[in-house]
Specification:
By secondary structure, the protein is α+β, with helices and mostly antiparallel strands. The protein has 15 helices and 18 strands. Helix 2 runs antiparallel to helix 6 and helix 7 packs antiparallel against helix 13. The longest helix is centred in the middle third of the chain and has 50 residues.
């Protein structure tokens, strides 16, 4: 009766954990609607490069999606580089995709620079700058250090990235080991090494989550690590999408602590064997005894199944609770990253969750398998995990291909963007893991085809432990005998590691080491803008050869410069390939008249659905400064560009020839 009561209480606790996990998962996925990946600046008031008659009272920015703001997200600098904004920008009229900051009164005529920094819905910092003029344009000497870009402090970025990597690894360890013992090796929960793996995963995920929560504020704002414990920044982080995800993860870790206690406490206890029944002689002879023995054996088997039923039900309940917990934890990453914004969010969210879970089952299961082999498990356990690993690899391949297509957008992005190059590195690591996994399967086949070797392992003689006399009062002697017993047990386990098992364990260890590299690259991928929306201006500048500056057109102040930028969107429409010609006059600091012409491969003007023109000064961390273009016929536009400083500028022309085909050629030029 007491056992039945404990079982009912255990089932109620499991049901309670399931209810909590379901509620948290619903909160995480609620409101994850479509959005465009990475916020872009759609419009400004005053308009970019505009000349207004009187000083405005505020500057308002409108983005393509909701953004999070800090106290210095928008700064306005006068021609001398002095701040003229009132600080503490806020959303205009409560709209999440806007930022407004007030201006001081009595502003003089001249050109003003607006530097902005925000956090898009996919949790990545974005930034830029533009200019407007009061009365008339003027020269400006804005200090580059006063401008706020979208780069984080180096130490903070390193610690933040490390925390995210540890979190991925800890999730894989926690979920993968739990799944391994539930599906492949239930008796493993009673082993100390397995329990240490579970607690290591849980503790590492808790510590890394707290670290990421504290570092998120300095990471977004570009401040130092000393601001990590600023409660104001922590509160601001909790108001963001990623802060909500981190808080939910902490609550889920509390629930996972209950789950682990149930897993070890319930699954780690084998069912009690039934007591042997005495044999009674009823005088029916041998045939009667055989019939009664058969009937007694069948009855005993039924009783044994009935005795094991609570254990099976507990295992099933723990399996369902573990699944819900794993899905909910995976959602804390997917719900605040690339999958939560962009195209096909309704499909990207579940695919992202499946990708993370498959990764955890494979990589975390490898860690558990290493311990299981060390503990001398049979081939049937390795067989079960092999089937799980095969299914996980299939899911990883399918979801990974979809994520790659969604994030890249074009074949050129594979080598032309940081996201694409990291994806190639990750794919290479996964291929290496598959090769090592194939070697592991060959070792498993050897183990499966060598039952004599397995039997030899089971019959390996282990010296009997030295008994410690109960009446011994010498603590030194007791400690010495205890060490001898431990050494004998360890030696017995090592003898059980036959050549076949040792080979399998080595290949699994190599597979696990490569998995660490995969986790590191995965973290770098999540911190990189998707190739579909990556800044081609930055990529083109970073990829430029050292001689690019010398080869760039050299212009003298006050003269017109013409820049020709060949483009190819890889589309199939007639306007997909051609040349963009940018003409600047007078090609010096201050306002410049800009003309843009798009000509197809045949030299004739072509029309495109969208074209954008921008200028960046990489050496001074200024820009991109977009140019408002006015159509002047087919394939022809004009506008005014404010270039406030001298130096090596980069012009970029974003050309979109269809709904999905676009490219952004860049070219460097110099103004004095």
């Amino acid at each position: 009766m007491q056992t039945a009561g404990l079982e009912k209480a255990s089932h109620r606790r499991i049901a309670g954990v399931l209810g909590m996990l379901g509620a948290l998962l619903a909160l995480m996925l609620a409101g994850a609607g479509p959005a465009s990946a990475h916020a872009t600046l759609d419009s400004t008031d005053p308009r970019q490069n505009a000349v207004v008659a009187t000083a405005p009272q505020a500057v308002t920015l409108t983005f393509s999606e909701a953004v999070s703001l800090s106290s210095d997200s928008v700064r306005v600098l006068d021609p001398a580089g002095r701040a003229v904004d009132t600080g503490n920008p806020a959303h205009a009229d409560g709209r999440g995709n806007t930022a407004r900051v007030g201006l001081k009164s009595g502003l003089a005529n001249g050109t003003y620079t607006v530097a902005w920094r925000a956090v898009s819905e996919d949790s990545h910092p974005v930034g830029g700058a533009f200019t407007f003029s009061i009365g008339a344009p003027s020269d400006t000497s804005v200090s580059a250090t006063a401008l706020q870009g979208a780069k984080a402090d180096g130490l903070v970025a390193a610690l933040y990235g490390t925390g995210r990597t540890v979190a991925y690894a800890a999730f894989a360890l926690l979920a993968g080991v739990a799944a391994f013992v539930l599906i492949c090796w239930p008796a493993g929960t009673a082993r100390r090494p397995v329990q240490r793996l579970l607690m290591t995963g849980w503790t590492a995920l808790l510590v890394s989550t707290v670290a990421v929560l504290l570092l998120r504020g300095p990471y977004e704002r570009g401040s130092g690590v000393g601001q990590a414990f600023d409660l104001t920044l922590v509160r601001a982080t909790l108001d963001e999408r990623i802060g909500t995800a981190l808080a939910a993860r902490l609550l889920l870790l509390a629930a996972s602590g209950v789950f682990l206690s149930l897993l070890v406490g319930q699954l780690g206890q084998p069912p009690r064997p039934l007591p042997a029944k005495p044999v009674e002689d009823d005088g029916h002879g041998v045939e009667g005894e055989d019939a009664e023995d058969t009937e007694a054996a069948e009855l005993r088997e039924l009783e044994q199944r009935a005795a094991e039923r609570p254990q099976r039900e507990t295992r099933l309940g723990l399996g369902v609770a573990g699944l819900v917990l794993t899905v909910a934890l995976a959602a804390t990453w997917v719900g605040a990253d690339h999958a939560s914004v962009g195209i096909q969010v309704w499909l990207a969210l579940p695919f992202g969750i499946l990708h993370l879970i498959a990764m955890a089952l494979w990589l975390g299961g490898l860690a558990a398998l290493l311990v299981a082999l060390r503990e001398g498990v049979g081939a049937e356990v390795v067989d079960r995990f092999s089937r799980i690993a095969f299914g996980s690899v299939a899911v990883l391949a399918g979801t990974g291909i979809y994520q790659s297509w969604r994030g890249l957008g074009s074949w050129g992005a594979l080598t032309g963007t940081e996201y694409g190059r990291l994806l190639l590195v990750k794919s290479g690591c996964v291929v290496v893991m598959l090769g090592v996994a194939w070697i592991s399967r060959s070792w498993l086949a050897r183990l499966r085809s060598a039952p004599a070797e397995a039997a030899e392992v089971e019959r390996a003689e282990v010296p009997e432990p030295v008994a410690v006399a109960a009446h011994s009062e010498d603590p030194v002697r007791q400690a010495q005998l205890a060490r001898q017993n431990a050494a004998r047990e360890s030696a017995g386990r090592e003898r059980g590691l036959t050549p076949t098992r040792a080979g399998l364990r080595r290949s699994v260890l190599v597979e696990a080491l490569v998995a660490v590299a995969v986790l590191v690259v995965t973290t770098m991928l999540t911190n990189s803008p998707p190739g579909r929306v990556a800044s081609e201006v930055t990529a083109g500048t970073a990829a430029a050869a050292p001689g690019a500056a010398a080869a760039a057109p050299q212009t003298e102040p006050g003269r017109t410069v013409e820049l020709k930028l060949p483009y190819d969107t890889k589309g199939r429409t007639p306007n997909a390939k051609g040349t963009a010609t940018v003409t600047l006059n007078p090609a010096r600091t201050g306002p410049n008249e800009v003309k843009l012409a798009l000509d197809g491969a045949d030299g004739q003007p072509v029309d495109v659905p969208e074209v954008q023109l921008a200028f960046t000064l990489p050496d001074r961390d200024l820009g991109p400064l977009p140019v408002a273009l006015t159509p002047e016929g087919t394939g022809r536009w004009s506008g005014t560009a404010q270039l406030p400083l001298a130096g090596n500028w980069v012009v970029s022309v974003q050309v979109r020839s269809s709904d999905i085909d676009q490219t952004t050629p860049t070219q460097q030029f110099k103004i004095g």
